[in-house]
Amino acid sequence: MISYVTTNDGKVREAREYLADVRAVDFDYTEIQAAELGPIAAHGAREAFAHVGGPVLVDDAGLFVDGFDGFPGPYSAYVEHTLGVDRVGDIARRRAEETGETPRAQFRCVLAYCDGEGFAATPDAVDYGDRRGHDLSAEDRGTASTTDSIDAGDVPVKLFAGVVRGRIVEPRGEGGFGYDPVFEHDGSTLAEMSAAEKNAISHRGRALATFAEFYAER
């Protein structure tokens, strides 16, 4: 059984389209400040693993606007609650008009998986933590597992990324949440899509699909 650390029922429903044995766990892990999603999700996965004592999934996601070097990115939730979705959309579109560029953006999601064991070398990223990894060879990293000398802050975490590309538009649609009304993909905003349509192309769904392939062999 995988514990998906979230209070969002929609995330769990989406995960169950790819994974048979998954449950939601409400755990308030420390959300560190970082310029990328991976370290944030990895830190949360380590804390969650120490709390749950078994396989865990933690995700972090954000809207990355091309014209602003990816901002708001990892700070998307904070910016949504302070500046507001409509304001972010206005700023992105205004800058695009001034530069003559298309206001392109990406939704990105990183899933972090931890089960206390090491990972064989694969193309997928592995976060070995701040202490672990600097003194391990590549071969050792591939076969490392938890021991009495390694606490939950050191166990390796495997990362799976998903991206959906689109552009920033005037708000449209009544569905979804967050930045969905201002993010258009293939002619429709995410807020105009049904749940099934959105899940079929979502950044989280793409990360989950990659993870599910890995987990089937795990």
Automatic annotation (TrEMBL):
Domain of life: Archaea
Keyword Ribonucleoprotein attributed: no
Listed SUPFAM superfamilies: ITPase-like
BP GO annotations: nucleoside triphosphate catabolic process
GO molecular function ontology, one term from the record: nucleoside triphosphate diphosphatase activity
UniProt keyword annotation of Zinc-finger present: no
CC terms in the record's Gene Ontology section: cytoplasm
Xref: InterPro entries: ITPase-like_fam (IPR029001), RdgB/HAM1 (IPR002637)
Keywords assigned: Hydrolase
Annotated signal sequence range: none
Record family assignment: Belongs to the HAM1 NTPase family.
Name of the protein this chain belongs to: Non-canonical purine NTP pyrophosphatase
